[in-house]
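Reader question, answered in our methods column.
A reader sent in the components of a multi-part assembly and asked whether the whole thing could be modeled at once rather than chain by chain. We filled in our standard form and ran it. Here is what they sent:
COMPLEX SIZE: two components
ENTRIES:
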Amino acid sequence: MSITLYHYLILAAILFCIGIYGILTSKHAVRVLMSIEIAFAGVSINLVAFSNYITPGTLAGQIFTLFIMTVSAAEAGVALAIIFNIYKNFRTVDIDKIDLMKR
Amino acid sequence: MLKDKSFLTILTVFLGAVLVVLGSLIFSSLGYGKEFSFYLLSTLIVISAVAVVTVSNLVYSGFLLVLTFVLVSGIYMLLNADFLAAAQILINGGAVTIMLIFAIWLTNNKNDTANIPYSGYYRYTAFVFVGLGLFLVLVLRITGINFNPTGTPVLSVSPGIWNILEPIKVNTTEKIGQLFFNEYLVPFELASILLLMALIGAIVLALREYKFENKEENLKNKEEEKVLK
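And here is the structure of the entire assembly that came back:
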């Protein structure tokens, strides 16, 4: 039994679901970022698998994955700067406690 | 004692990751182990990703995220994406996770309530909706689509790119470079502008100092001084 495209897609779906579950259930802002990175990894596996199995000559999926990596690195940098500012102001990174606009 | 223990744990995790990736690649390069290495890598990826989400110590979950990324780069190697595998280890496994771990260390506060997990009911509800609901929808959707049934990986050398028995026929790095500077030139330049913007934005955000409380305190102090005068 060889490994088909469906195996990779289901692995990617599992990773994506773990990432969404982590986003929903974590209080620490940095852990939310980590969960987002896990979901990104799932999506990247999807794209690389499509590139390998469906459009083998073009490598478009791998280039999309490289762009996803670029954007996720940029996003992580800016988000960490925002988290530092939140910590400076509130002395906490609990995302339930950061509700200044609600009050 | 505790510090030594945690260091040993981290070291073991890293050595384990390197051994697993190398071992599975050697298996697959011997020609008969692509299935084996896929199942090994994917099992370990799922275990370590679940651990990232659930382990109570955040620093451990940061290092487990490195493990996850290294294992995902093994999956990329199985999919004939050699440049992507290297970039994944360098960018995600190296740079991004190191930033995250530094953020964990710099925002460490003993009185912070962020380390207390949510109540059990909330987590069970989230698990039912995401782990069962979303996952079932995705799996039904994936298995319902008939992707090109004859689709075999044309690009691939049959047992993966790291084949010792045959010379490496595929070099994606060269192709990706050519595509970046011909077909995908505009997105490439846009990505570089995005990175520059993110760099400047992160520096500006991290250096700016809001001091609401201090300003109020300063005002109070000045008023008190005036009253005293």
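What stands out: Residues 81 and 87 of chain A are 10 Å apart (CA to CA). The longest helix of chain A spans residues 60-90.
Send us your own complexes using the same form.
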